[in-house]
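Milestone M4 deliverable, item 7.
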Amino acid sequence: MEPAAGPAGLDAAVFGLVAERHWPGAERVLPALSRSADKARLWTVVGAAMAAARTPRGRRAAVRGLASLAVASAAVNTLGKRSVRRPRPVLDDVPLIRQLRRQPVTTSFPSGHAASAAAFATGVALESPRWGAVVAPLAASVAFSRVYTGVHYPSDVLAGAALGAGAALAVRGLVPTRDQLPSPARPLAHAPALPEGEGLVLVANVSSGSRIESPATAAGGASEVTEPGPLRLLRELLPKAEVVTCDPRAGGLTGALESAARRAAERGGALGVYGGDGTLNAAAAVAARTGVPMAVAPGGTHNHFALDLGIEAVGDMCRAVEAGHAVGVDLGRFTPRSGADGARTGYFLNTFSLGAYPDLVRVRERWAHRIGAWPAGVLAALHVLRTSGPVEAGLGGSSRPLWLLFAGNCSYRVGLAPVRRNDLADGRLDVRVVRAGRWARARLLVAAVTSAVDRSPLHSTRSLRRLVIDGIPPGTHLAYDGEVAEAPESLLLDKVHEALAVYRPRAD
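Output delivered:
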């Protein structure tokens, strides 16, 4: 019988050619690969491996890939297969060794496996082209395996792949990739170019990003910390920089920063710091006080400030330091008002908060050394959502129960878009208040998931230059840049506009 004419005939003809051709070595590999992608198991494992690489871009690429896969899978199962009820191919011409042990029972068009593979690979590539190049051959092999094993026609696979790529692009439309969001490029600030790092005095917190104590530390002895790989790279890229290693668990971080800032000022150079947001917070206070430019190298778990500067790796900082490119950055400040005994002014590069978040940080730090930072953060969030209570505090002259008060140093983007600041010197505090009330936590969580945070009646947002908080109950804690301290009865939040000159890569 002659094959049918038109697209259907071409589809069947290509399917027949794949079935008839011998593919050396594929009999053992492709059926197993096809089965491994059932229910997205393969892509979940690949995403976990990417996240375990412990690079910000790798983690973002994994999350974007899995989110794109989820959207593609939902589209295939709710629209695709219900709209076009195409029968599966007949397996007469497919060698038995290639056929899957369990044949699919759903309709053929489009291929869900191809959609998931293309969605994951496209989502990963949009965030990280390098990771995308690694994942793409695997995704293509999964898609081809669906024709090779006889469970789909080629057009099923092509349609599924197109749907998956479209899902990844749709996710990018809702949640822009970091490359789509402009890095802070203004106002430019004066900072000297330091070829090979000459004049840079960098204090490195060698314990940043690791909350697991060594046996010696746990027993009360001196800790033994291996120098992190990024710090070794920094020494290679900036051989004339002075690098001072410090472990804050043994004390002396502030003293090391102040000494480094003095030496940098004498040399006409800059104060460098390697560590997480808490370490950068300590360095910012010193840099603002001494008037020296600041260079930041990401070495912590989250690295919010460095990422908002466009610094994802040590090499980004090194290039900025050698080029002498820097921007002005605001510094948030919280000052105890008169009557607060023993309390001192504090600063924040990222955020200040009262209420649920300080509780989350305390719980997370208590668990992190046992199970790791990321799992501890998830469990701490669930614990706080279940157990935390409101804080009674005065805002604008009236007292009210609050579940959370958040003040960002400059305006943040929230909702479905990743938390990000595009301007680090806007002179404003991004103040967000979540009032206590019936089902307040559950309603806020739903609003956050549906990107309706700003429309929640429990949530209010203001852009302010200063804020007075009074009537804070004794024993209440505050958090700033991931650090926790006991709050005084009354506080003034304000800004030091363009307090810092910080190196960042030149915007393209």
